[in-house]
Amino acid sequence: MDYHFVSAEKFKKMIENKELLEWANVYGNWYGVPKEPVKRALDRGQDIIVKVDVQGAATIKKTIPQAVFIFLVPPSMEELATRLKQRHTESPSDLALRLKTAEEEMKQLPLFDYVVVNKEGEIDRAVSEIEAIITAEKRRVTPREIRL
């Protein structure tokens, strides 16, 4: 996974110049997906995996509706709460906000094509399921034509 950090000024310019496939401010931090590297990879016939929240997925779906959307979920909201608490990275109020947001995001499941459950200690299984989805999509009788 490649992250490229830019100044807030450059990020705002990228928004103004419509250089981002999607962008959002999440918990006080700006995130976005630059269009150009995605377009170059697609033009070369490469697969692209973009990690975004449901808001980002909805934005990308408007631009590239034929893309494949996979919703990665925890086994339960209780397990998500436990995982987040164990990290000790959020204050109690921030934790409550994240859990409330996650509950709202779960309602967006119909936006996605597939769901993969990410069970504690079974990341290899989740990765295998995502790989199986990619393989299945490549074997479609009528492939999706994904262009940007």
CATH architecture: 3-Layer(aba) Sandwich
Number of helices: 6
The biggest beta sheet is recorded as:
2 strands, antiparallel
SS-based class: alpha+beta
The helix content is 40-55%
Helix and strand succession? HEEHHEHHEH
Distance between the termini: 21 Å
Q: Which strand-content bin applies to the residues?
A: 5-15%
Rounded to the nearest angstrom, the radius of gyration is 17 Å
Mean pLDDT: 92
Write down the oligomeric state.
Answer: single chain
Shape: globular
Low-pLDDT runs: none
Describe the structure.
This protein is an alpha+beta fold. The chain has a single domain (8-138), classed as Rossmann fold (3-Layer(aba) Sandwich), CATH 3.40.50. It has helices at residues 8-16, 35-43, 54-63, 77-87, 92-106, 123-138; strands spanning 20-26, 29-34, 70-73, 114-117. A two-stranded antiparallel sheet has the order 1-2. A hairpin with a 2-residue loop joins strand 1 and strand 2. It is globular. The two termini are 21 Å apart. The relative contact order is 0.13.
